[in-house]
């Protein structure tokens, strides 16, 4: 580890100065915010004031907060003085706990809530004007006054990464960052809250950083290739067809032949759904059909 402790406000001030010459970029600061302060950045009032003063000169700098608020109450997201004027933007990670309460899997992008656009969508549409109309986003659906899509995940470590100290020491030329979406965050393996599980994660070693999660969210919107779930009506029809086939296999043919039919059905469903997802980004939910086969 290059630093004996996390970079303080003075180092972040120098870091932002290095980014000041980068052109046509968007910068997202992704550090945990607790009690209206950055949990991982230390410093006295003067160093915070100096950092905040520089940060406010950047028109392309946003500070992500893992929170949402009702429309008209955005002021509740402001940080403590002297950081109160930083451009804090709502950037929830939408962690799902119902299906996997242990690993808290992240699989969705919150595009907007209560008429407010979230940071990932705001950034993405600057680079992809085709999604300026939220209704043009592939796979979009609405739930609880929120527009959402599923994340199209890339393999772990797919996105280009630079070390904080390399940028600070001038080892990364500004031209390498021109036109890029730059996400600045932690990967120290010291706090579990800096990591999330994905549908493809196994044990802790397979978790990705929250910065990589945001990168996957934004890339999904840039490519406009979010998986789209089949309508619930088609899901119901598929479940009924598999149910009828299961009953037929159990009651009308020999057990050995019935098992072969069910195994073939399982393999075909899995193959076809995987193929359709890969080719058309259409997600066929198999949970209900497969449950009818094995219950």
Walk me through what this model shows:
The protein is an alpha/beta fold. The protein is 35% helix and 17% strand. It has helices at residues 9-19, 45-55, 119-127, 164-168, 210-223, 232-251, 255-280, 287-294, and strands at 26-30, 33-34, 37-38, 61-65, 88-90, 95-96, 105-106, 108-113, 116-117, 141-143, 146-150, 181-185, 195-196, 208-209, 228-229, 282-283. Strands 5-4-1-12 form a four-stranded parallel beta sheet, with helices on one face. The longest helix is centred in the last third of the chain and has 26 residues, at 255-280. The termini are far apart.
What overall geometry do the principal axes of the alpha carbons give?
Answer: elongated
Beta content comes to: 15-25%
Count of helix runs: 8
Largest sheet, spatial ordering of strands = 5-4-1-12
Question: What proportion of the residues is helical, as a percent range?
Answer: 25-40%
Instruction: Estimate the mean pLDDT confidence.
Output: 90
Rg, Cα atoms, Å: 23 Å
Based on secondary structure, the structural category is: alpha/beta
Number of strands: 16
Low-confidence stretches: none
Distance between the termini: 52 Å
The H-and-E topology, N to C, reads as: HEEEHEEEEEEHEEHEEEHEHHEH
Main sheet overview: 4 strands, parallel
């Amino acid at each position: 580890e290059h630093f004996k402790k996390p970079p303080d406000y003075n180092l972040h001030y120098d870091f932002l100065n290095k980014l000041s010459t980068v052109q046509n970029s968007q910068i997202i600061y992704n550090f945990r915010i607790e009690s209206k302060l950055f949990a991982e950045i230390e410093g006295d009032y003067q160093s915070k004031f100096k950092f905040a003063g520089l940060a406010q000169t950047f028109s392309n700098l946003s500070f992500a907060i893992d929170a949402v608020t009702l429309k008209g109450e955005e002021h509740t997201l402001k940080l403590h003085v002297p950081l109160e004027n930083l451009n804090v933007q709502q950037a929830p990670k939408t962690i799902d706990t119902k299906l996997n309460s242990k690993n808290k899997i992240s699989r969705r992008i919150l595009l907007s809530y209560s008429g407010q656009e979230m940071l990932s969508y705001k950034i993405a549409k600057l680079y992809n004007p085709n999604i300026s109309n939220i209704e043009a986003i592939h796979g979009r659906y609405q739930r609880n006054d929120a527009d959402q899509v599923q994340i199209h995940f890339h393999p772990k470590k797919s996105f280009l990464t630079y070390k904080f100290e390399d940028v600070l020491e001038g080892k990364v030329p500004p031209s390498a960052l021109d036109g890029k979406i730059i996400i600045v965050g932690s990967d120290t393996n010291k706090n579990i809250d800096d990591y999330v599980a994905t549908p493809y994660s196994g044990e802790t070693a397979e978790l990705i950083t929250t910065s990589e999660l945001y990168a996957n969210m934004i890339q999904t919107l840039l490519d406009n290739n979010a998986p789209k779930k089949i309508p619930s009506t088609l899901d119901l029809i598929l479940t009924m067809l598999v149910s009828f086939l299961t009953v037929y296999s159990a009651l009308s043919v020999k057990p050995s032949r019935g098992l072969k039919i069910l195994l073939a059905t399982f393999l075909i469903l899995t193959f076809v759904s995987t193929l359709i997802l890969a080719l058309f980004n259409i997600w066929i939910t198999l949970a209900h059909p497969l449950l009818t086969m094995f219950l």
